[in-house]
Amino acid sequence: MQLICPFQPKCQTKIIKFESDKPTHKLITKETTIPFLSPSNSNSNSNSSQLSNLSFHKAGMWDFDNIGVSRPIPPSSTSASTSKEPVEEILELQDEQTTKIQKFKVVRYLTCGECDRGALGFVGVSVDDDDVGAGEEGTKQKVDEMAYFVCIDSCFVDLGGKKVEDVVN
Asked: Do the strands 146-151 and 55-59 form a parallel or antiparallel pair, or are they unpaired?
């Protein structure tokens, strides 16, 4: 399976190729502020109501053919609550092989390396419940443990002649 930038007709850059056609992780978090792209309308971002079944592939930084990484994401000072405390984006993902649920603090967005549009995924740092709300100190200790997640649903998928049903099921 190969993921391609969804911006047509000009870009269509190859982002990454995977050996397996099955996603490695599913999004468990019900709401997020991350502006994941929707290939059906690559000029607008998905909204949180469409995020319940997003699929991701976990990859290493050097696995990508052409990817961009945003600057570090500062904690948001706005949230649904009236608190003035910075809000960190924490996503829960379920590993499709082990069914283990892991939490990742989103520290950067993944974008197309050619046209610089996105978000096509995110860079996250694994966090425990004790780390949530620890701010930058908790994250700096785990910089070497950054994980790269590309959102399959934010890219066009080249299945190499396979049917979509064979990959999804």
From this structure: antiparallel
Count structural domains, the chain.
1
Q: Are 25 and 96 in contact (CB under 8 A)?
A: yes
Residues near 50 by beta carbon (within 8 Å), at least 6 away in sequence: 38
Q: What domain range is 163 assigned to?
A: 2-168
pLDDT (tens, 9 = 90+) of the chain, 169 residues, equals 899 998 877 788 999 998 877 888 888 887 777 877 766 554 444 443 345 568 888 888 889 999 999 988 876 644 444 445 556 788 899 998 899 999 999 999 999 999 998 889 999 998 876 555 555 554 454 556 789 999 888 888 887 755 444 444 4
Q: E strands, the chain, where?
A: 2-4, 14-17, 25-27, 55-59, 67-69, 90-95, 101-112, 118-127, 146-151, 156-158
